[in-house]
Amino acid sequence: MVTLTQGVFLGYMGALVLERLVELVLSKRNAAWAFARGGVETGQRHYRFMVVFHTLFLVACVAEVFLLHRSFPGVLGWAALGGALVAQGLRYWAISTLGSRWNSRIIVVPGLPPVEGGPYRFLRHPNYVAVVLELACVPLIHGAWWTAVCFSVGNLGLLFVRIRAEEAALGDVYAKAFSHRPRFLPEVPRG
Hints:
Structural class: mainly alpha
Radius of gyration: 18 Å
Helix content: 55-70%
Strand order of the largest sheet: 1-2
Distance between the termini: 56 Å
Number of helices: 5
């Protein structure tokens, strides 16, 4: 028998899966836009691993809750839901700021200046901050702490490879524009 909180969690996870499918459609459309303008793709080898990793994450969240009979953790669950929603807001702020240049793959159109608006005013990689927050929070909504820990640790290795590939592809203009911006945590102005 599925409990009320498990049902709500399944609904949330279903919405997350639908969201990812919409993002893949958007990514495919934006890739076509970039390739039509001479876009160059890099990082194809790790991209397949990234897709499998994120798919397994969604499966693991649900599997741990049901197979290990995780119960809703009360205040921690509500806090995790808040963190997951903040992650979604940050993700869509980054996506909307990049517009047609956003992609789940690394495709760079030569000659375009770096995007420095929106959350990119404060961070080099706000989308990856959202992913880190999401991988930690979504499983904890319903007490799936093993999934939160394992996928957060795995994501560190993936981001190490991904960010190096992305920054190399973006080149010197990007490096110069973002040289004084932190990668993940915004700096608090000293006053």
